[in-house]
Amino acid sequence: MTMIELPCPAKINLFLNITGRRADGYHELQTLFQLLDYGDTLRLQRRPDNLLRLHPELNGVPSEDNLIIRAARQLQALNPQQTLGADLSLTKRLPMGGGIGGGSSDAASTLLGLNRLWELNLNLAQLAEIGLKLGADVPVFVHGKTAWAEGIGEKLSPIQTANSWFVVLKPDCHVSTAKIFCHEQLTRHSSPIKIAAFLEGGNGNSCEPLVRKLYPNVDKALIWLNQFAPAKLTGTGACVFASFQDQETAEAVCGQRPNNIDGFVARGVNTSPLHKALGIL
């Protein structure tokens, strides 16, 4: 195998409960990562040398800072005696800074794709450990299951969610995750809940009140979407979402969105399209 093309699916946080702050600055949390059947596409082509080339480069993100290249470098570092190079082509659909895991998903698809292309034979646990060094959201994409998460998001328990269609909207603003997590008004000590409590309706987002206050465009998007179904913030935003029972209703709502708001419709899935593409079930 010298070439492979892989999906990089989005995720949304069906709820986000921040329960504490660690000494290293990371936040302890609870969340439910819902995987979607919509995302970026990554094409990986093996090279006969050790060069890594990403095209196109993302605006404002130097190639070496991109999580795709950083993920590939991690694998190269484990095997310095091997010839491991690749051309990496990304078709970007997921908005940056949206809270839907675009960069983390790209990194996970890079790890799994190059593991297959370079015949490294690392297992998912090993790849998830590498991914955690790149970001707290990377492991859920590596493991490829909709999951209940704790710790900083790396302690995962697969969970089956009902079939739903989601309208995901991206307001015209960029929310800084670092700014939200460092803000003095962020609620950091919510009481932990059990999965049963979530299923009974415990589905808030500790970041939402602060994000709505600091980013009026997010507040407006939530108010607009809430006309059709309960609307929520995913992660620290800026994306917001609502759940619908069928594709037709979701498409109809998305089609009515204000002109200054991007959006898409996606189906919630319990197994990642990435894993299906690689035959990992």
Describe the structure.
The structure is a single chain. By secondary structure, the chain is α+β, with helices and mostly antiparallel strands. The protein has two domains: about 5-160, Ribosomal Protein S5, domain 2, CATH 3.30.230; about 165-270, GHMP kinase, C-terminal domain (Alpha-Beta Plaits), CATH 3.30.70. It has helices at about 65-80, 100-115, 125-135, 140-145, 175-180, 195-200, 210-215, 215-225, 245-255, 275-280; strands at about 5-20, 25-45, 50-55, 85-90, 145-150, 155-160, 165-170, 230-235, 240-245, 260-270. One of its GO terms (molecular function) is kinase activity.
CATH topology of the largest domain: Ribosomal Protein S5, domain 2
Q: Classify the secondary structure makeup into a structural class.
A: alpha+beta
How would you characterize the largest beta sheet? Answer: 10 strands, mixed
Question: If classified by CATH, what would the architecture of the largest domain be?
Answer: 2-Layer Sandwich
- β-strand number: 10
**What is the chain-wise order of helices and strands?**
EEEHEHHHEEEHHHHEEHEH
CATH class descriptor name of the largest domain: Alpha Beta
The parts where pLDDT drops under 50 for at least 5 residues are none
Mean pLDDT across residues: 93
Calculate Rg over CA atoms: 19 Å
Outline? globular
Beta strand % = 25-35%
Distance between the termini: 20 Å
The percentage helix is 25-40%
Kindly give the count of domains. 2
GO molecular function, one term: kinase activity
Keywords: ATP-binding, Isoprene biosynthesis, Kinase, Nucleotide-binding, Transferase
Enzyme class: transferase
InterPro entries: GHMP_kinase_C_dom (IPR013750), GHMP_kinase_C_sf (IPR036554), GHMP_kinase_N_dom (IPR006204), IspE (IPR004424), Ribosomal_Su5_D2-typ_SF (IPR020568), Ribsml_uS5_D2-typ_fold_subgr (IPR014721)
